Structure formats: structure tokens, C-alpha cells
Amino acid sequence: MKRHLIPIHRGNIVSDPFNFLRQEIDRIFETSTTIQGITPDFEVKETKDAFSITAELPGMSEKDIDISLADDHLTISGEKKSEETKEGETYHISERSFGAFSRSLKLPYKPEEKKISASFKDGVLKVIIPRPTNLKPNVHKIQIQK
């Protein structure tokens, strides 16, 4: 009898069914890229002063990561390189992932490039994108017609 593994998902389906659905859709579309590369976990937070993007990149170093900004699109990419195998080594289990990744995020505003900062410590990348000081809310009042 063939057994099928059921994926375990983060979060609680009862408390957040939309998050569960989003994770399922992401999993379906990322299956093909996961085979050839890695899919690091990202966290994006917003405060009144800035956007904060955190990416878990264990096993990588700063030189393997590239961060670029084009207008209001921030792209984080990199490659986790596999270790060299030596002749005579036999793997019985290998669950580690290696390969390239690229993730682009559309920001709600065009940031000031020189004020963006990034740090990398213990396999965690953190990018801080301050809000421009002259940013005004783009609110357009719609009149109700009679």
C-alpha cells in the first residue's frame, strides 16, 4: 500500500481560512520552482515610519544575496550553493535544499534609495525601507451622484 504524505501548514485553518488558502495556492505554484531552487520564508511589516522585510536565509552568506530597487519594486535574490561531495561518500538521507531564488515586492510608494538599509545576521536578512518624509496619502474623494 502506497502512503501519501500530507503537508503540514503553519497557522490555524479555523482561525484564518484565507491564510490557509493563500498558503495552499502558493504551494501549488511554487512546487516546480522548489524542486530547482529554494523558497525562503519572508515577513513584511509596515509601521507608520517604514516597511520592514525579513527573510530567513539559513546556510547563506552576505555575498550570496543581492538586493535591488527599480522604482517601487524591491527584489531580493540569491543562491544557496550545495557543498561539494567527495568520492566514496554515500548519502542515506538528504533533505537540505540548494539553489537560486528571487522574490520581488511592489512597494506602496517610491522610496528614497539612500535611506534604505539592510543587515544580515545569523542567516536572517532584514531590510528597512523608510517612508519618504514628503509622502502624502493618495486619497481621492468620490462623490455620490443623485
Q: Would you summarize the structure shown here?
A:
The chain is of the alpha+beta class. It has one helix and seven strands; from the N terminus they run H-E-E-E-E-E-E-E.
Q: Describe it for me?
A:
This protein is an alpha+beta fold and 146 residues long. The protein folds into two domains: 11-40, no CATH class; 41-82 and 100-133, Immunoglobulin-like (Sandwich), CATH 2.60.40.790. It is built from one helix and seven strands. It has one helix spanning 17-36, and strands spanning 42-46, 50-56, 65-70, 73-80, 99-106, 117-121, 124-130. The protein has a four-stranded antiparallel β-sheet, with no helix packed on it. The chain has a three-stranded antiparallel β-sheet with strand order 3-4-5, with no helix packed on it. A hairpin with a 2-residue loop joins strand 6 (117-121) and strand 7. The longest helix has 20 residues, at 17-36. Mean pLDDT is 79; it is low at 1-13 and 31-35.
Descriptors:
146 residues, 2 domains, 3-stranded antiparallel sheet, 4-stranded antiparallel sheet, 7 strands
Q: Topology of this structure?
A:
Elements: H1 17-36, E1 42-46, E2 50-56, E3 65-70, E4 73-80, E5 99-106, E6 117-121, E7 124-130
Antiparallel strand pairs: 1-2, 2-7, 3-4, 4-5, 6-7
Low-confidence stretches: 1-13, 31-35
Coarse shape: elongated
CATH architecture of the largest domain: Sandwich
Largest sheet: 4 strands, antiparallel
Strand order of the largest sheet: 1-2-7-6
Number of separate domains = 2
Portion of residues in beta strands equals 25-35%
What is the C-level CATH assignment of the largest domain?
Mainly Beta
Computed over alpha carbons, the radius of gyration is 20 Å
What is the terminal separation in angstroms? 68 Å
